[in-house]
Amino acid sequence: MASSGGRDEDDAEADAEDGGLFAPDRHGQAPGLEERSERPRAETGAKLPAAADARAPRHHDGHRDRLRERFSTAGADALADYELLELILFRTIPRRDVKPVAKDLIARFGSLGEVLGAPQRRLMEVPGVKEAVALDLQVVAAINRRAMRSAVRQREVLSSWTAVIDYCTAQMAHEAREQFRILFLDKKNALISDEVQGTGTVDHTPVYPREVMRRALELNATAIILVHKPCSPTASVF
Q1: Distance, CA of 102 to CA of 136 (rounded, Å)
Q2: Is 6 within a domain?
Q3: Could you tell me how far CA 96 lies from the centroid of its own chain?
Q4: pLDDT, position 194
Q5: What is the pTM of this model?
Q6: Are the C-beta atoms of residues 209 and 224 closer than 8 Å to each other?
Q7: Exposed, middle or buried by CB within 10 Å (0-12, 13-18, 19+), for 89?
Q8: Same domain, 115 and 182
Q9: pLDDT digits (tens, 9 = 90+) for 164-216
Q10: Residue 8 lies in a domain
Q11: 173: domain range?
Q12: What HEC string does the chain produce?
């Protein structure tokens, strides 16, 4: 028995001297096992779970390029309303498929125009629409109103009542409260100024004829158009 035990100790010492795979170090550990467990997975052929997969192309990346190309070559008329909305959302939501968000917005508000005219708090009720997205949509709406106002100022407003109605609708359709607006015109019927004379509650807005005339004299206006926006979607033009 003694000789057998002595033999085992001699074998262990020999393994340690030879640097065998399982030879314990001075702390009593077998470094061979530790080294094998720490060996990079790439050496053993195992799949790396790291960023390689994160760099894989997403299916909607190609969709964005195709949609931009369609807009560039065929124009806005070739795109549906939700697709035009997608083009806006691309900038604010860069790493997500925005088609469901665009379709949800159209479904909620009914049209592209209604989406752009909606208040920020209502826009943010749609899943995926954060504050930055709602703000971007409102900026686009503001640019559209400013551009239309500039276009009106460069032409005769009364050349067509349809043009006047379209302009007033764009400026006032999404107002939640009653509003009384005045368009001041020069002798060529071109728009001098578009001003809100009064804003009221859901069913009332005050108008003061003296203030209307005073402002018309200040602007040297030769004609005015009075527009009343009730809470209903339509406006009255006088």
Answers
A1: 13
A2: no
A3: 11
A4: 87
A5: 0.48
A6: no
A7: buried
A8: no
A9: 888 888 777 767 677 888 999 888 878 888 888 877 665 666 778 888 899 99
A10: no
A11: 157-237
A12: CHHHHHHHHHHHHHHHHHCCCCCCCCCCCCHHHHHHHHCCHHHHCCCCCCCCCCCCCCHHHHHHHHHHHHHHHHCHHHCCHHHHHHHHHHHHCCCCCCHHHHHHHHHHHCCHHHHHHCCHHHHCCCCCCCHHHHHHHHHHHHHHHHHHHHHHHCCEHHHCHHHHHHHHHHHHCCCCCCEEEEEEECCCCEEEEEEEEEECCCCCCCCCHHHHHHHHHHCCCCEEEEEEECCCCCCEEC
Nearest to 235 by CA among 157, 158, 182: 182
Longest dimension (CA), the chain: 126
Specify the amino acid at residue 133.
Answer: V
Q: Residue 22: inside a domain, yes or no? A: no
pLDDT of residue 205: 66
Spell out the residues 6+ positions from residue 194 whose beta carbon is closer than 8 angstroms to its own.
149, 152, 171, 181, 182, 183, 184
Q: Which token pair is 96? A: 């997500």
Residue position matching structure tokens 């806006």: 88
